[in-house]
Specification:
single chain, alpha+beta, six-stranded antiparallel β-sheet, 30% helix
Length: 125
């Protein structure tokens, strides 16, 4: 029987001259570790679901804003971000948006895999 792997995925959208979605995906173990660092919590309090989701949502919004929105605006393509969404479960998957270009980046840190999945397409003029 396949071993279950709990994952967390955060998503934030952006809309404007360029539209798209940014997904951050990582293990529940990494999510809890990163949450303690971002929010300055002890490992005991970071396991609380509300605080953990707050940390993951905050991190998703930060990456979307710093990594994509600001770059697009600096290049003359203003856009706005949606509110971040966070889900967790086993074997999560992302469906590609029709006519969007998709770029998937894989990283490893602290022995854990982190995936950034970006889907973009031109907005309405």
């Amino acid at each position: 029987m396949a071993r279950r792997r709990r994952e967390v995925m955060g998503c934030v959208g952006f809309a404007g001259e360029i539209n798209g979605l940014v997904y951050l995906r990582f293990s529940k173990v990494f999510a809890l570790h990163a949450t303690t660092k971002v929010l300055g919590l002890s490992s005991r309090t970071s396991s609380m679901p509300v605080r953990g989701d707050l940390g993951r949502g905050r991190r998703t919004g930060q990456h979307g804003r710093r990594g994509f929105k600001n770059v697009f605006c600096d290049l003359g393509h203003p856009c706005m971000l949606t509110l971040p969404t966070v889900v967790s479960g086993d074997h999560l998957a992302v469906t590609t948006v029709k006519d969007a270009s998709r770029h998937v980046f894989l990283f490893e840190t602290l022995g854990q895999r982190v995936i950034i999945d970006v889907q973009m397409k031109g907005g309405q003029a």
